[in-house]
Specification:
The chain has 102 residues and is an alpha+beta fold. It has one domain. It has 1 helix and 6 strands. It has a 4-stranded antiparallel beta sheet. Strands 5-6 form a two-stranded antiparallel ribbon. Strand 5 and strand 6 form a beta hairpin. The chain is elongated, with a radius of gyration of 16 Å.
């Protein structure tokens, strides 16, 4: 069992990271739609394992357990498009980009 445990743990962690990435991608689409519907900016600040969202005068913070981010900022404008094409996401030791444009 000791030999099977490390690969199994990595598989579970990878699955949990992927699940969080899918939830993040879904939330990003919602924030894009909110920017478009409200015709105002939606500002997302990423750092460590958190994402802070500012819509109008309200802020909301989201925490992640299995993914993290270098410090970066994404602004969805009034037409629902982001100011940057990609978001950098870290999952364990791996780093990759998430495309923000549809």
């Amino acid at each position: 069992m000791a030999l099977a445990a490390p690969p199994l743990v990595r598989t579970i962690e990878s699955s949990q990271s992927r699940s969080e990435e899918l939830r993040l991608a879904s939330r990003l689409k919602v924030f894009s739609a909110k920017a478009f519907v409200n015709e105002s900016n939606v500002v997302l600040n990423f750092e460590g394992q958190s994402m802070t969202v500012a819509i109008a005068n309200q802020q909301q913070k989201f925490k992640f357990d299995h993914i993290s981010f270098p410090k970066q900022r994404v602004v969805y404008g009034p037409i629902g498009l982001p100011n940057v094409p990609e978001l950098t996401v870290r999952s364990g030791k791996h780093e990759h980009t998430l495309t923000l444009y549809p």
